[in-house]
Amino acid sequence: MMRARYSAVPVVVAPHNMALGGGCELSLHADHIQAHAELYMGLVEVGVGLIPAGGGTKEMTLRFSNSIIAGDVEFNQLQEYFMNIATAKVSTSAEEARGLGYLRTKDGISLNRKRQLADAKAKVLSLSQLGYTQPVPQTNIKVLGKSALAYFEAGITGMIYGGYISEHDAKIAKKLANVMAGGDLSAPTEVSEQYLLDLEREAFLSLTGEKKTLERIHSILFKGKPLRN
Length: 229
Description:
Layout: H1 2-5, E1 12-13, E2 17-20, H2 22-28, E3 32-36, E4 39-42, H3 56-67, H4 74-86, H5 94-99, E5 108-110, H6 113-129, E6 141-143, H7 146-161, H8 167-180, E7 189-191, H9 193-208, H10 211-223
Parallel strand pairs: 1-3, 2-4, 3-5
Antiparallel strand pairs: 6-7
């Protein structure tokens, strides 16, 4: 994913129909998305007891940081990105994917499926002709640390008491919250993409060792349906 983001040549993706999990993550790291209007896009890893760990969690945290405007209530914005992942929210159109933060303002939408690939090719040639320069890894991603973690954990605990989520759902949500808050930092801090990728990988690997996560993966692979345990 990071090779796609920091390639020496422009990378344009043309998702259509479904771009879920890894397909969504690859799209998030491209220089430009030329999406078909009918697009089911989302980070759905929570459904199998994991978190997005192909850069998806990192990328949504980065997009939160880049969207901050002075005077905004920052946690509310971060919570929106968190909930999209925690509830495995999937768009039902490219325009809705833009509203969920998967597509950016600059990304394009093709109404005609037969024209989509041509539109994507035209965009990649345009980026090249305009003098494409290789991006530089971002090191100034703002994370909110302990303050955000406390809010997330309070909300997760309330969801358990209300019977809306299981104990394992809560464990996954807390792992996700830890990454998106930037870990147990005492104050809001600026971190690098690699820092968040390391947190993301650590959370993912710890969840792969959970019995209930393995049960969820088994259910998807062999029964073709999600398991809520």
